[in-house]
Amino acid sequence: MRFDIITLFPDFFEAPLKCSLLGRALANGIAEVQLTNPRDFATDKHHKVDDIPYGGGVGMLLKPEPIFAAVESLPVLPRREVLLMTPQGEPMHQRMFEDFAENYDQLVVICGHYEGVDERVLELVTREVSLGDFVLTCGEIPALTLLNGVVRLRPGTVGKPESLKLESFETPLLDYPQYTRPAEFRGMAVPEVLRSGNHGAIAQWRKDKQIEKTQRMRPDLYEKYEKSQTTQQ
Prior knowledge:
This protein is α/β, with parallel strands linked by helices and 233 residues long. It folds into 2 domains: 2-151, 3-Layer(aba) Sandwich (Alpha/beta knot); 168-232, tRNA(m1g37)methyltransferase, domain 2 (Trp Operon Repressor, Chain A, Orthogonal Bundle). The chain is 31% helix and 17% strand. It has helices spanning 20-27, 64-72, 94-103, 140-151, 199-217, 219-232, and strands at 2-6, 32-36, 50-51, 61-62, 80-91, 106-111, 127-130, 184-185, 188-189. The strands form 3 sheets. A 5-stranded parallel β-sheet has the order 2-1-6-5-7. Strands 3-4 form a two-stranded antiparallel sheet. It has a two-stranded antiparallel sheet with strand order 8-9. Strand 5, helix 3 (94-103) and strand 6 (106-111) form a beta-alpha-beta unit.
């Protein structure tokens, strides 16, 4: 799977692309990341990529010409999506990552900056994506989040693929509490049921804790869970 990231700051990705599971996945050829700087496609002597908005207003907008040229310089794979990282886009979620990981060969990711991009850039874009309902200084942060979330779902990235099926957001319930050694730490003990060896009791305890945690922390997800249970009955 190929990721083409259109960014004014390629250095932002230098360390993250070498670290942990993401770094190993890229080194093993599970995914490929290419960084393209639209400034390289600016035609004026100052390589200008931004300008003031027509009609007035604060801040600067990214110009359309360098972004169009950058995207058009890329190869086009069969199953391709061109994404714009913007606070106005669809908030990222696990199903989105699964869709990208399973159904696409290429994701072109345009990182926004300043007050945004010239509206004409949207002619290139097939989907607008957001990290959430807040504003960041750059689109590189959500781009890196999306890259990480998608690549980890690609076959070969995670050592035990079955672990992906047990995570939060794979079902309407959040994950259950987990513990490791030591059995007691500063007066806090691992629940006895987890040390009992009774797999049925452990499974029930985990399910109960998932429900309890979801009710407390994400009532919106718990409502979806209740509806799914009603549908199955």
